[in-house]
Design a protein that fits this description.
globular, four-stranded mixed beta sheet, two-stranded antiparallel ribbon, about 150 residues, 4 helices
């Protein structure tokens, strides 16, 4: 990977998926597009499942939550953002990029994570050098899919 002056580069360290036990969703397609019905208690499952799944993925790379500077959380709705951040012990400002994307575009399903990543990359911030990040979204099942990455500014 090369980094040109004034440009950001990123490298994926690892990627994976982890089912969140005892969750359910029902997907369909109709004339209006994709439909999705989530279990009423999904926010509780997210709260109980995200932290342990992320911790296990970080441990595989010899990292802990405190080593992560950037959090790209799937903006699938207020409850998903809130419970994901709560499960990870993150202050709201650590997930602010997901909130911004949700406010601007609404819930675009898991593809919304790409918009969050785009904003994180564009935000030059005051940090020079590499930043470690975690990005994750939710897929049918409900499965947590994510990646560990480094962003070089």
């Amino acid at each position: 990977m090369s980094c040109r002056p004034g440009r950001s580069s990123s490298a994926t360290r690892s990627a994976g998926c982890s089912p969140i036990p005892r969750t359910a969703s029902c997907w369909g397609v109709n004339d209006d597009g994709i439909t999705c019905e989530l279990a009423r208690d999904l926010p509780d499952y997210i709260y109980r499942g995200v932290g342990p799944a992320i911790d296990a993925a970080l441990a595989e790379s010899g990292l802990v939550r405190g080593d992560v500077q950037l959090w790209a959380i799937h903006p699938g709705g207020p409850a998903i953002l809130e419970q994901s951040a709560r499960s990870l012990g993150l202050a709201r400002e650590r997930s602010s990029t997901g909130w911004e994307v949700l406010a601007e575009y609404g819930n675009m399903l898991s593809v919304a994570l790409v918009f969050v990543l785009e904003r994180l990359i564009a935000d030059r911030g005051d940090h020079e050098g590499p930043s470690t990040g975690v990005a994750f979204s939710f897929a049918p099942g409900v499965t947590l899919e994510g990646m560990l990455f480094d962003l070089v500014r």
